[in-house]
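Saturday, quiet lab. Running sequence design on the structure tokens for the scaffold JK sent over.
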């Protein structure tokens, strides 16, 4: 088994700027801000992209999609619940004011850490990529990431576009 130093030294160089970008996104998420509603989709789209990449690279994509689908359905309600905890105020013109919070940082770093760990594991023990358990697990991790991200943004978008309640 390689040492921590060997793992870090053999990590492709593009991973480190990606980590910096993930940390920057998370840091921005800690601060309240005004932004276009569409920008909320960046992190969930990253989750979908990493999931799709993982499935495409799988030795048995159908099995990976099965794990992904089950995990997605299980994680959607959690993401929706997490989205309900973030306060936001629609401003009109496709913009919202959203409170800062830890979700973006924790979610982004979690995506990075899990994908990095799986990459290292499959790099060190490539035979695992062909084992059913690891194929389903890898797909399932992508499904969890996608489900939480999609559930989160679904809740935020529902509240951002909810018609104002008229009071008499």
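Result came back. Writing it out in full:
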């Amino acid at each position: 088994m390689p040492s921590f130093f060997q793992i870090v030294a053999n990590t492709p160089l593009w991973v480190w700027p990606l980590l910096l970008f993930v940390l920057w996104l998370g840091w921005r998420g800690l601060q309240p801000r005004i932004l276009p509603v569409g920008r909320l989709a960046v992190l969930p789209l990253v989750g979908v992209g990493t999931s799709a990449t993982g499935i495409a690279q799988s030795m048995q994509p159908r099995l990976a999609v099965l794990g992904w689908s089950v995990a997605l359905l299980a994680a959607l309600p959690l993401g929706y619940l997490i989205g309900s905890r973030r306060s936001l105020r629609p401003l009109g013109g496709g913009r919202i004011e959203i409170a800062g919070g830890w979700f973006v940082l924790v979610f982004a770093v979690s995506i990075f850490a899990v994908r990095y760990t799986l990459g290292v594991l499959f790099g060190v023990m490539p035979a695992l990529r062909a084992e059913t358990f690891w194929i389903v697990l890898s797909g399932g991790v992508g499904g969890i990431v996608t489900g939480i991200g999609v559930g989160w943004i679904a809740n935020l978008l529902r509240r951002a576009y909810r018609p104002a309640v008229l009071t008499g």
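Notes for JK: Helices lie at 4-9, 15-29, 42-56, 61-84, 103-124, 132-161. The first helix runs from residue 4 to 9. Ask whether to fix the surface positions before the next round.
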